[in-house]
Prior knowledge:
This protein has a single domain, classed as Uracil-DNA glycosylase-like domain (Uracil-DNA Glycosylase, subunit E, 3-Layer(aba) Sandwich). It contains 10 helices and 4 strands. A 4-stranded parallel beta sheet has the order 2-1-3-4, sandwiched between helices. It starts with a helix and ends with a helix.
Amino acid sequence: xxxxxxxxxxxxxxxxxxxxxxxxxxxxxxxxxxxxxxxxxxxxxxxxxxxxxxxxxxxxxxxxxxxxxxxxxxxxxxxxxxxxxxxxxxxxxxxxxxxxxxxxxxxxxxxxxxxxxxxxxxxxxxxxxxxxxxxxxxxxxxxxxxxxxxxxxxxxxxxxxxxxxxxxxxxxxxxxxxxxxxxxxxxxxx
Length: 190
């Protein structure tokens, strides 16, 4: 049985699999870069194609890679904190379910032994992987991204909902994004 089959058969996912939904992730053994985000949005869950939305377009732009490299090169792995769309909240989506990353991420990451960098997209992934405290500010974490290198590169979620944050923090696209693109280019071209 594959990891995919095990995720589908896991009882905690039965409400999703009973609707015919499939877990959204991509863990090729050839991956050099792993992206860990929160959970698929509704559009992504319905299409079955990860980062197939406005957030994905911005993420690829920030990474400096094409859709072809992102989806077809085998150099990019994607593991969300939850494999299924968690539902709608008052503002935005519900958070990823707890326990999913604990149970599945170690096995999926082990499946990608050539990964040289993990991009942590948004607060859920950053809090989990960087072991942040509740008082740690994501803006500070992203500003201090160099202290987490070379293993982790924390970035803000590319959602259009973060346009206000991006306007208030122009340093992100002026300074952080070029460094991200440079590192990705070096890793992918080797």
